[in-house]
Structures are given as C-alpha cells and as structure tokens.
Write a sequence for this structure.
C-alpha cells in the first residue's frame, strides 16, 4: 500500500494534468481530436492515483507480476498510438502541401502567360489594339480588375480569363 503522501502527490499531478489539457483546449492551443486522448489519460491517471490497488488487480488479472510493469506497458502502447496518429497527420499535411505547391505553380504559369499577352498588346500600335471595357459578359472576369500590390495599394491589372 503506497503512502498517503504518494497518493496525494499522484492525485495533485493527475488533476494538474487534466486542468492543463482543459486550459490548452480553452485557449485553442490544442485541438479537440487530440484533447480527447489526453483527457482520457489524465482521468485514468487520476483513477489509478486514487485507487492504487486497481492497478495491482488488473496486473494480476492479465498475468503481469508487477503493477509498475503494467504501467510501463500501457505507457508504451499510448506513446505508440500517439506517434502513429501524428505520423498519419504529417503524411496528410505533406500531401496537402505538395498539392497546394502544384496549384500555385500552375497559377503562376497562367499569370505569366496573361502578363506576356498584355505586354505584347501594350507594345502594339494604339489603332490595332481592341477596345477594353470594364463590363464583363456573364461568366467572364472583368478585363480590368483591381489586384492588391505588395505594399497594400491596389493597381489595375488585367484579370486572367
């Protein structure tokens, strides 16, 4: 039977962990899908801290000689699960990042083509240039749309069509 000091210390640490997880969730520093597992772990730690004989009973039921070995084994399983989940998330984020980089590259090519077309039109004689109006036909982007510049000002450029 553990001493009363150890039980009190374990309960205080488990409650502090639970409060910390709830506070991180409240401040939006931790997402809900990750908070669930940490709340479950904190509550499990609190239960084991309050009823230390429960860990010994579960260890004996499973066939583990020492309750601390059960605790280490359970910790290993939890760390493996968290690591696997985070690896999955990193893989999804890498795929999303790659896809977004490809989209940006395609948009830059398209913008370059539009800018070169505009540059060639600007160099042509004024009599040969077609009239540009601000009114767009249904389903078209206006040919003289406003785009923000790097300094926060707007400049008139032709929108890609």
């Amino acid at each position: 039977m553990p001493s009363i000091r150890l039980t009190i210390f374990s309960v205080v640490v488990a409650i502090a962990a639970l409060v910390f997880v709830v506070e991180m969730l409240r401040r939006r520093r931790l997402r809900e899908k990750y908070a669930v597992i940490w709340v479950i772990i904190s509550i499990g730690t609190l239960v084991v801290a309050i009823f230390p004989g429960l860990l010994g009973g579960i260890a004996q039921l499973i066939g583990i000689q020492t309750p601390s070995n059960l605790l280490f084994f359970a910790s290993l399983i939890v760390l493996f699960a968290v690591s696997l989940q985070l690896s999955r998330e990193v893989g999804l984020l890498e795929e999303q990042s790659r896809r977004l980089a490809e989209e940006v590259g395609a948009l830059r090519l398209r913008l370059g083509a539009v800018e070169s077309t505009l540059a060639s039109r600007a160099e042509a004689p004024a009599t040969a240039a077609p009239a540009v109006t601000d009114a767009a036909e249904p389903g078209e982007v206006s040919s003289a749309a406003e785009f923000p510049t790097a300094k926060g000002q707007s400049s008139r450029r032709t929108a890609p069509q």
